[in-house]
Amino acid sequence: MADLYKRFGGGLGTLFVALVAVWLTGMVLAPNIMMIDYALKPNLPPAEIGGPRDVYSLDNILYLANEGVHRAIFFKTIWASALVAFVTFLVCYPLAYWLAQNATQNQTAIVLLALTIPFWINEVLRTLAWYILLAFRGPLNALLLSLGIIDEPVRWYGDGGVLAGMTYAYILFMLFPVYNAIESLEKSQIEAARDLGASVWRTHWRVVIPHAKAGIATGCVFTFMLAAGSYVAPALLGAPGSRWFTEIIYNWFFEGGDWNRGAAYALVLLVLCLTVVLVTLRIARVSLTEVAK
Q1: pLDDT tens for each residue of 130-157
Q2: ABC transmembrane type-1 domain: which residues (predicted)?
Q3: Distance of alpha carbon 256 from alpha carbon 258, whole angstroms
Q4: Helical pair 68-101 and 105-116, crossing angle rounded to 10 deg
Q5: Strands (DSSP E) along the chain, which ranges?
Q6: Backbone φ and ψ of 55, nearest 5°
Q7: Which of 38, 110, 132, 287 is at a distance of 20 to 30 A from 278, taking alpha carbons?
């Protein structure tokens, strides 16, 4: 705060602080307060709002605890989101290491541009591209049939399709933090580990990954939160047996017309996601300050 006022002066610094405060209040604090208010109140007809039945309770949250199907989908969404983060890390880590330590400046620019260009269009269109790719008569099945790998077309929609679509959708949120962390690692440290007889696996496990743990944690946090709150990929690439918790929330709001129960479900998802993130950072011994960097 002091640096902000020192750099921009009292007037401009105060303006920046005020704009940030307005944005946080209007876009973060107010919606979440309204969500909590909706979640703790019953869904009543307009005539009964403000009446004796319009009181705060945990009924909407307890409904989720007692609804076996919804509870199962909720926990499945949590572990599946963690799986998305893990798979995205496995995909991004070798690429991030190569870009940070081995690629030339031109190679880095070309690869990053190639990865970024598809994100110039919105997520719906990118997910629809995966929908076409994984279709029963789509390019993937046609290729596998022509190579003789499969004898008949496969229905790729479901958990596998959602995992592939989300990994692609959030790859940059993992790649950039890991790349930035590994880029700051001196090549001499890697060379020293090799000179001392460390294998490639041990060098990465004992040198590279500990150095890049803040970037890895940041990428995992971003990817996990985005996956847990995703709606487009599960809705387009999922199957009846691979429903996502956000689809349940959507149904409560826009099909069931019960905003209170939908808000309760959303609140539970938010609280558990924040808990998982904080526990993960604690286990990785990474502070929120390091993630914010």
Answers
A1: 898 888 888 888 888 888 888 888 888 8
A2: 74-280
A3: 5
A4: 150
A5: none
A6: -130, 160
A7: 38
